[in-house]
Amino acid sequence: MHKSKFLNIVLATAVLVLTILLATKNDLPDMRKKNSPSASEGAQTVVSDSAYIPFKKKSLGVRAELYPKPALVIGSYDSEGKPNIMTAAWIGICNSNPLSIAVSMRPATYSYGNVTETGFFTVNIPSSDMVRYVDYAGRFSGRDVDKFKETGLTPVKAEFVNAPYIKEFPIVIECEVTAFHELGSHRQFIGKVIDVKVDEAILDANGKVDVALLNPLIYAGGNYYETGRFIAEVGESLHEIDGQPFVPDYRQKYVNETLEVIHNRKSVRHFTDHPVSKQQIELLLRAGMAAPSAVNRQPWAFYVVTKRETLDALGEQLPYAKMLLQAQAAIVVCGDMEKAGNLKEQGYWVQDCSAATQNILLAAESIGLGAVWTAAYPYEDRSKVVTETLNLPEKHVPFNVIPIGYPTGEDIPKDKWKAENIVWQEHLNE
């Protein structure tokens, strides 16, 4: 073969290979989109291309990308004793002994002058449903408006410091300024905590703040967010440390918390001895009563069992409810035959109680509790055990017993997706 002819063949081959490589490179983003789950495909996960190159960082320069930032409200008096509030996100605990909080304010704010002059302030922690007040307090100046008057919030003189707190906010912290630092755009005030006051409604059985009930606000990227669900106790996951790198997959993120709760719900049969509060049980019951029911009859009655002797008695007698011996509480869902009325024979009460039960199970998952559905109905022997142990009236038919407690982590959710269980109706006409 002539040398020139051979070189032409090599050159043509190189051009062909280069063309294929360039075409493949250009098609890669489209291939990703086709192969990756998307919100339009079941609305379950969020796609993020950043997950395809783990740990690759992009420099954003000097930006306040520290998460989460709290959304708190600072209370103070001006020189005339007028109460004022301002929203602060540049704030946090800065010392343990004495317990102190640091809050940074710009000199342009009205509260800056108030705190500088009086040497006191309060930190008011809102729940998420108070976001409108937090937003208002951060968008207007106390020089121009009376924020308490405009919002309808109630100022209360603090017990130990010369500053007002907000009556309606669930947690208030009274602080005395012990130092301040000029940082540049802001002055940082260091406030020693003098007293903390908490609404009893958000305390658990141990007298600690139940974060799920408080549901504090988070400020990020110019927006407000809720705190989110409980995921683990301190030290609980130490056994998972194995020296191997963890690569997060940001593609597998549910588009909202509702879908995440649904897919993470599991039947929990192993519980710790951590107590469950009355407030938590009420949250579950509210969820149960929010279920749909035929003709809005709401033919249910809920019995809450927390007495250890009763839980043990049920656990020992019911064949598939032995986990009651570990559980800290149980909800017994009953059908109320009087409420069911003339629909009793159609069995709608069974469907209604099933919907209520599923709501309770999902609500338990959403606040970090574990629960499991154990049937009483339609088994006569199990129904008799529940009826006699709880001394139920004849009109209340025990439908199931739901053990409740904090999960040990032994039980995990199951992936029950099976495409073969779906019949697409349009295919039948093809």
Nearest-integer average pLDDT:
87
The name of the CATH superfamily of the domain at 69-220 reads: Electron Transport, Fmn-binding Protein, Chain A
Q: With helices defined by DSSP (H or I, 4 residues minimum), what is the helix count?
A: 11
Structural class: alpha+beta
> Quick one: CATH class of the domain at 69-220?
Mainly Beta
Q: How much strand content do the residues show? A: 15-25%
Biggest sheet record: 7 strands, antiparallel
Written overview of the protein:
There is one protein chain. By secondary structure, the chain is of the alpha+beta class. Among the domains are: 152 residues, Roll (Pnp Oxidase, Chain A); 148 residues, NADH Oxidase, CATH 3.40.109. It is built from eleven helices and 19 strands. Helix 6 packs across helix 10. It is elongated.
Keywords:
Pnp Oxidase, Chain A, 11 helices, 29% helix, 430 residues, 7-stranded antiparallel beta sheet
How are the elements arranged and paired?
Blueprint: H1 3-35, E1 45-46, E2 69-70, E3 72-77, E4 83-88, E5 91-95, E6 100-105, H2 110-118, E7 120-125, H3 131-139, H4 147-151, E8 155-157, E9 164-166, E10 171-182, E11 187-198, H5 211-214, E12 217-220, E13 223-226, E14 253-254, H6 257-264, H7 278-289, E15 300-305, H8 308-317, E16 329-336, H9 337-340, H10 348-366, E17 370-371, E18 374-375, H11 380-390, E19 396-405
Antiparallel strand pairs: 1-14, 2-12, 3-4, 3-7, 5-6, 6-11, 7-10, 8-9, 10-11, 12-13, 15-16, 16-19, 17-19, 18-19
